[in-house]
Amino acid sequence: MTRRRSLTALARFRSSDFPQPPEHEGLRDAEVITFFTADGMVQLPGRTLKMPQRRLPPRAPLPTWQEQGLCVASTFVIAATNGFDPKRRINVLGFCRCTDMLSEVIEDTVLQRGGEIMLRECEPRSSLHETLKMTVAIPLLWGVPPEHETLSNAIVSGGGIVEKVWLQWHFS
């Protein structure tokens, strides 16, 4: 009585594991599949894919806090309503490095969501300190998912630091 045992293994290699010849620049194989059988080894090449070309040049990295030198913080207060009920609002208080950049990012986000900027004031408090006050109307502010999370993300991406968030409901 003889027993026959067979072993089958599958090995996958990415094309980045092996150097490419210069004539294949811009092209790469997706993967090479190798089968080890009792009769020998079988390799199946993957399909050739074109590598995507970068359209935009890479951006320079942002400077660190130490490289930027003097940092004078400005403050901001943003009030957001849903546009239909001005008595229900969410207020966001915080600090930012640049009120102009923060107001542009918030304006872009609100307009992308179909909202509107109701009020924008930039008051100089001293020669180095500014205060940004904005009132925005965002549709579905209290919807699911709530749009105030989008507003908070816009503040952070615009260089703002959220200090306090509070809801304000006026009942009359």
UniProtKB/TrEMBL annotation:
It comes from the Eukaryota. This is DUF7811 domain-containing protein. The lineage of its organism: Eukaryota, Viridiplantae, Chlorophyta, core chlorophytes, Trebouxiophyceae. It comes from [Myrmecia] bisecta. Residues 59-171 form the DUF7811 domain. Pfam families: DUF7811. InterPro entries: DUF7811 (IPR056713).
